[in-house]
Every structure is written in C-alpha cells, then in structure tokens.
Amino acid sequence: MSRLSSSSCETLLEAPPLTRFSGLLGEPAATGVLTRLDRELAWQRPTLRLYGREHPIPRHQVWMGSPEARYRYSGCDFCPEAWHPAVAAIRDAVVERLAAAGQAAHFNSVLLNRYADGEERMGWHSDDEPELGADPLIVAVSLGAERPLRFRWKQREAAAFNAWLPHDSLLLMGPGVQRRLQHALLPRRIEGLRISLTFRWVQPPPADGRAS
Ligand SMILES: O=C(O)CCC(=O)C(=O)O
Ligand SMILES: [Fe+2]
C-alpha cells in the first residue's frame, strides 16, 4: 500500500495513551474508499428509546465484524454484518500501521458511523461495554470532512480538549482512555460527509451460550 510522505504520528496524551496518525491509506485510495463505503454499505438509523420516547439516532451506522463478535450498544443487541472487503482492507492497514509503530493490535469488529453533515453527531460516551474487556484498545479511522472528537475527563482532573481528525487519519485510544475519559462528536458548522470506523475487539460469548 502506498504511503504519502505526509504520514505522521502525534502523541495527544501520554497517559492514558492517545495518538493520532495521518496518511493511513494515501490518495486516491482514501477518497475512493469514502465514496465506496457511502454507496455500498447498508446504512441504518436505529431508534433508541429514551424516557419513554423513540428517537432515531442523529447519524447512520453499520456494525460489522466476525460472527462471534456480538455486541450490545445503547441497549440494542447487534449481530454484525460480514466484513466488506474495503473495510477489511482498512482494518489490515490499521494493524500494519500500528505494528510499524510498535503497537500490536487485533480487531474482530467495527462500528461505522456516517455523518451526512455537521449537524449529525454522537453524544458523550465511553466505549466501555463489558464485551470489550477491561481497558480496551480502540482505533477510530476518519474519512471525509475533518471534525473534532471532543474529550473530557470523568474526574475533571484536566480541561476538555479537541482531537481534530483529518481525512485519512486514525486515532489510537489506548488502555485507560475509556476508563478515564468520555468522547463525543459534537454538532459543528462544518460542511460535508464524514465516515468514521471504530475498530474493536469484542470478547466472544462463552462457549456454553450463557451470553449476558
Ligand atoms: O465518529 C467518531 O469519530 C467517533 C465514533 C465513536 O465514538 C464510536 O464509534 O464509538
Ligand atoms: Fe466512541
């Protein structure tokens, strides 16, 4: 896979580790895959029940992964779709890029989020579901419009901050990030489509079928 000379790696936090890498796929691959994912995936807008009312989520999403990677998210049970070849290629590029930086990683699932414009968003949360295990390593790949992922400390030990995520970048959220911080993609007056892919390792349910 070709690498642009613009590829780089920046430490946003030392502890817990938060690192941004740019130039993951290079061009024209990154723009091509953005268009392909937009066109080819079965984007869904599930409804969440909050305080007795139904609300469609303010974005579209697809949950994808290996069949054993069943996952509960915001109270819904997701059966993942099979790996799309373009998504599997991004996953492999992420693993390769992290390995080159000395970070071993493996992923059996990904949540893809599609934000049509700056109005579409994701609220404050941590990716700390029990299926992800203690202190997971999660990687967010960004394609399309550059938007900030906002972080805040749960114990308010330091100021909230933005991690700007340019097209074709990835953000490594290492062990402790989900335990100590929350993140959100807040609405901003920023034009254009953005697709993010958050790669995770979901612990397969116990073999005797006693899934929670
Ligand atoms: O769109 C993003 O960059 C964030 C997505 C996210 O936080 C998630 O999928 O859990
Ligand atoms: Fe998240």
From TrEMBL:
The keyword Aminoacyl-tRNA synthetase does not apply. Coiled coil: none annotated. This is Alpha-ketoglutarate-dependent dioxygenase AlkB. One of its GO terms (molecular function) is dioxygenase activity. Residues 106-204 form the Fe2OG dioxygenase domain. Keywords: Dioxygenase, Oxidoreductase. Gene3D superfamilies: Alpha-ketoglutarate-dependent dioxygenase AlkB-like (2.60.120.590). PROSITE patterns: FE2OG_OXY (PS51471). It comes from Halomonas urmiana. One of its GO terms (biological process) is DNA alkylation repair. It comes from the Bacteria. The keyword Oxidoreductase applies. Pfam families: 2OG-FeII_Oxy_2.
